[in-house]
Amino acid sequence: MKQLSFIFFLTIMIGCTGQNVKEDNIPVALGNDSAMVANGYEVVELHKMKTGHLTASFQVNGKPCVFLIDTGGGGTLIDMSKKNKFGLEPLGKREYAAGIGSVSSLIRTSAILQVNGKEFKSDDLFMMDISYLNTEFRKTKGRQVDGVLGTDFLERHKAIIDYPHSKMYLNIEPDGENQMHH
Fold first, then answer.
1. Domain covering 2-14+31-181 in this structure, CATH number
2. Rounded-to-integer distance, Cα 153 and Cα 75, Å
3. pLDDT for 144-181, tens place per residue?
4. Which helix (H) or strand (E) holds 139?
5. pTM exceeds cut of 0.85
6. Which of helix, strand or coil describes residue 69?
7. Cβ(152)–Cβ(76) below 8 Å
8. Neighbours of 93 (CB within 10 A)
9. Neighbours of 123 (CB within 10 A)
């Protein structure tokens, strides 16, 4: 369980920029998907594991990918062992991040993430060995994950998690940025 907690503390240490979150008028229409879509949000179905962790299905470079949703993690990670599956290339040198009781190596990468047929480029991804997460999830017959969707991504896309309806709403083109390819 220490290793499972480690990812949450480790990801806080990467990707944190100290930026202030801009307050916006967020539509209060949770559970009403058409109202959320009309307000510029994409609807993402969430899956709750026995452990209480939430996951979401995306595609990375056109391949199916299951992300663990980490609302406290500063960085978005893809399991290092999945780099060939997703066609990921390292960008730059190996970096290191310290967490509770250990140090892990990270490699920056870039990919196209896709959800519900909409694509957006992400240059803020890291590859890291997160196999220990799946080891822990196997013990509870939990869903196996390919990566961790961190606060960097969630904030940038103004994520709203609707726990009662097991959905997440993402603004795929935040602040007029045209990162999305239709």
1. 2.40.70.10
2. 8
3. 999 999 988 999 899 999 999 999 999 877 664 534 33
4. helix 131-139
5. no
6. strand
7. yes
8. 7
9. 10
